[in-house]
Design goal:
about 35% helix; 7 helices; seven-stranded mixed beta sheet; about 220 residues; single chain; alpha/beta
């Protein structure tokens, strides 16, 4: 059990900062910084400010904070969005801004499952997801900054009430243009429809979690 009271936390690639906001609800005396490279999402975050959280438009490969500024770093399904040639640099930056003994929580989607089979029709992340794990392996192999404390895999439930909701949530993110034309949209709908029931479509997203500790 990690005590988050009075901790300085940074979430890299925070998206809509749902986790950061939730942490503040449970630990109101901690301070959270959310980094987001997507300008559209960053603007939305600024519009919905919350006491205790600061939003910064920046990427994980260039964290605009001094050495040892944070007690905990989080990357939830965001490392694979860092350009492959910058992943090593991003992990070096995380190590730089963490205090010695601090933890780094990284979760990444596993490239498998029914939901992944649909998503890869228009956004195949097989290469970048593998690259993210290899970057973590390299960081650990250096044996200078990191040691792995724990590693787990779990299935995250995902539900869409309709095909229309899936399209709105998944096909047109502000951070990427998936070039969805009419033909591709039809292929996606044909792949999604068999999963629909009267209650919508339920999936599980397999997640790989690695908990690292900065040791130097």
């Amino acid at each position: 059990m990690v005590n988050l009271s009075n901790q300085a936390i940074i979430e890299l690639g925070c998206g809509n900062a749902r986790l950061s906001r939730s942490l503040l609800g449970r630990y109101p005396n901690c301070k959270v910084t959310g980094l987001e490279v997507d300008a559209v999402q960053h603007a939305k975050n600024l519009f919905h400010l919350q006491r205790g959280i600061e939003f910064v438009e920046a990427g994980a490969q260039n964290v605009p904070f001094p050495d040892g500024a944070f007690d905990l770093a989080l990357m939830l399904k965001s490392l694979h969005h860092v350009p492959i040639h910058l992943m090593d640099q991003a992990l070096e930056e995380v190590a730089r801004v963490l205090r010695t003994g601090s933890l780094f929580y990284v979760s990444e989607p596993i490239y498998s499952g029914a939901l992944n089979d649909i998503v890869r029709l228009y956004n195949d992340e097989g290469i970048v997801r593998s690259a993210a794990q290899m970057a973590l392996d390299r960081a650990l192999a250096k044996n200078l900054d990191w040691t792995q404390v724990e590693e787990r895999r779990f299935a995250q439930p995902v539900h869409y009430s309709s095909c229309d909701e899936f399209e709105k949530r998944m096909l047109y993110p502000s951070f990427a243009d998936h070039s969805i034309d009419a033909q591709m949209l039809l292929r996606i709908q044909e792949a999604f429809t068999p999963h629909l029931t009267k209650d919508g479509a339920s999936f599980v997203r397999p997640i790989h979690v690695r908990l690292l500790r900065k040791v130097s």
